[in-house]
Automatic annotation (TrEMBL):
Protein's organism: Blastopirellula marina
Its job: Catalyzes the transfer of the diacylglyceryl group from phosphatidylglycerol to the sulfhydryl group of the N-terminal cysteine of a prolipoprotein, the first step in the formation of mature lipoproteins.
Name the UniProt record assigns to this protein: Phosphatidylglycerol--prolipoprotein diacylglyceryl transferase
Family statement drawn from the similarity comment of this UniProt entry: Belongs to the Lgt family.
Keyword Cell membrane appears in the UniProt entry: yes
């Protein structure tokens, strides 16, 4: 029996090697023993992966929790090579380990943070390519030439974009939303789709029931009831003697509208390759930080600029990503909320670094 080698895991390892290698090279150029970087890397890698995974598990706990079976739940949590980590989680976990390490080793934390800032970004460059291979962190529907369609995968392990399009009605040509009252409405009708061809569904229509399941008056999230019904319609309907991929929507003022998407498609609809956008973003930020480093005037500037720019670009990328929903009534995803906090902290750090008026710990430029 062969041992599976997963692209996501390979790219994650490559991200770690490239980040540590770059940091060690730069440290040597600054007269710092590379062994310090290797020791730091060990603790930051562990804490960063744990933080990244913990952030993801908390955010998507409902997909991991198996009621009454903690072993199965723990097994799902430990499947890191299947994908499912959050960059901000790794930053938080890595930052905690970094500060503890610097305190115990009596190192200048701001100077060392500036030194490794480009490494964080080059790690993201490779890591996001791994996300692309895994199918996570995907974008919204796209009609541009750069759009990509992710394969179905091996049922029941569908790729993430494929599952989302099964859940939100995209394969039927529909996208749903939920208003402040909890009513489920049609947010969009895609052209050349079963929904548009029916001529009966319009944007703004209120959906009361799907396949007989009531969506209104739900104490929990009505969209979850809708998603579960859409997700399983391909098999459940078939068991009931109805053609696979058929759903029946009870729409206010229009009664029952039936849609038939047919057998499962082989791939998701075309989406933005946001993973590759993020990868390119990481490479650009890495080069920018390397270029700016010799011109820094205070320790802490480089890491402050790196985090500030990343928080802005991440906030904007979240606009075209559809793998996260808005939380807490903010209208922003959890990553966008964290981006706002990180941006504020980065500005404060930059100002603090300049006001300290302390000489640079390592004035010699890194090659």
């Amino acid at each position: 029996m062969g041992f599976p080698v997963r692209g996501y895991g390979v790219l994650l390892v490559l991200a770690i090697i490239s980040a540590v290698g770059l940091a060690a090279y730069r440290a040597q150029k600054m007269g710092l023993n590379p062994e310090v970087i290797y020791s730091l890397a060990m603790v930051m890698i562990v804490s960063g992966v744990v933080g990244a995974r913990l952030f993801f598990v908390i955010q998507y706990w409902h997909t991991f929790y198996v009621p009454g079976d903690w072993r199965a739940t723990l097994g799902r949590v430990m499947q890191v090579t299947e994908g499912g980590i959050v960059v901000y989680g790794s930053l938080i976990g890595g930052a905690v380990a970094f500060l503890i390490f610097c305190h115990r080793k009596h190192l200048n934390a701001l100077a060392l943070a500036d030194l490794i800032a480009p490494s964080m970004m080059i790690g993201m460059f490779f890591g996001r390519i791994g996300c692309f291979m895994n199918g996570c962190c995907y974008g919204g529907l796209c009609t541009l030439p750069i759009a990509v369609s992710f394969p179905q995968g091996a049922p029941p392990q569908f790729t993430p974009p494929y599952i989302r399009h099964m859940e939100n009605g995209a394969f039927y040509g529909l996208l749903f939303t939920q208003d402040e009252k909890g009513d489920v409405r049609v947010a969009n009708v895609l052209p050349d789709s079963p929904a548009s061809e029916s001529g009966k569904i319009e944007i703004g229509d209120t959906v009361n029931r799907v396949n007989g399941q009531d969506l209104q008056g739900q104490k929990n999230k009505p969209l979850e009831v809708l998603s579960n019904s859409l997700l399983h319609s391909w098999t459940i309907n078939n068991e009931e003697g109805v053609a696979p991929g058929s759903i029946f929507l009870d729409i206010t003022g229009k009664g029952i509208v039936d849609l038939h998407a047919g057998p499962l498609p082989k791939a998701s609809l075309p989406v933005h390759p946001t993973q590759l956008y993020s990868s390119a973003n990481g490479l650009i930020l890495c080069l920018l930080m390397c270029a700016y480093y010799p011109f820094r005037k205070a320790d802490g500037e480089v890491i402050a600029i790196a985090l500030g720019l990343y928080s802005v670009t991440r906030f904007l990328l979240e606009v075209i990503r559809t793998d996260e929903y808005a939380i807490g009534g903010t209208g922003l995803t959890i990553s966008q909320n964290v981006s706002v906090v990180i941006f504020i902290l980065s500005v404060a750090l930059f100002v603090y670094a300049r006001l300290r008026k302390q000489p640079l710990a390592w004035p010699r430029a890194a090659a």
